[in-house]
Automatic annotation (TrEMBL):
PANTHER family in alphabetical order: PREFOLDIN SUBUNIT 4 (PTHR21100)
Name of the protein this chain belongs to: Prefoldin, subunit 4
Any matching Pfam family: Prefoldin_2
Coiled coil start-end: 73-103, 130-157
Region Disordered, annotated ranges: 1-24
Alphabetized UniProt keyword annotations: Chaperone, Coiled coil
Function text: Binds specifically to cytosolic chaperonin (c-CPN) and transfers target proteins to it. Binds to nascent polypeptide chain and promotes folding in an environment in which there are many competing pathways for nonnative proteins.
Positions with biased composition (Basic and acidic residues): 1-12
């Protein structure tokens, strides 16, 4: 069945699992859009339909908590990626400075200013910066681990309650 304009259909669109479900004449159909904005319907099997489960307040709280944790996870992953890149850059600079002459003064950025410092002092400052970044990376990885553990517990509880009727995969 092809429907040119889904708004003309008397069915009710319900988003589920990245597609729409359309209910017409008591039958449930899956709907997907193809070229030229045509809506294609095919009948869902009983397994794909899933059971209608009432969403309780505690279920909604778990779903909201999962969503919040998912957003935090995305932010922490971006932060971790930035810190790992910064660490990689500092290690590269440190290895380049090993080739420099010890009597040479090196420009070192502190805040928004650059200072000419002796090479051994710059190497010490870089080592301290690398240690700081290492501890920051470890802290972010620990937070991510705790967050993912809680998300997994919520997933287990929600999938146990709703089965295939809920999609928590990102």
């Amino acid at each position: 069945m092809v429907i040119e304009n889904p708004k003309r259909d008397k069915g009710k669109l319900q988003p589920q699992n990245g597609r729409h479900n359309v209910e017409t004449n008591g039958k449930l159909f899956a709907a997907g859009y193809v070229r030229n904005s045509r809506l294609i319907l095919y009948q869902l099997s009983k397994d794909e339909e899933g059971e209608e489960t009432e969403v309780r307040r505690e279920d909604q709280d778990k779903i909201n908590r999962f969503s919040t944790l998912h957003q935090k996870e995305k932010l922490l992953q971006a932060d971790l990626k930035t810190k790992e890149k910064e660490k990689e850059d500092l290690e590269e600079v440190s290895s380049e400075l090993e080739l420099a002459d010890e009597d040479e003064k090196v420009s070192y950025k502190i805040g928004d200013s650059f200072f000419l410092l002796p090479l051994p002092e710059v190497q010490e400052l870089l080592a301290a910066s690398i240690e700081k970044i290492d501890s920051d990376v470890t802290a972010v990885e620990e937070k991510l681990s705790e967050l993912r553990e809680e998300m997994q517990q919520l997933k287990t509880a929600l999938y146990g309650r709703f089965g295939r009727s809920i999609n928590l995969e990102a």
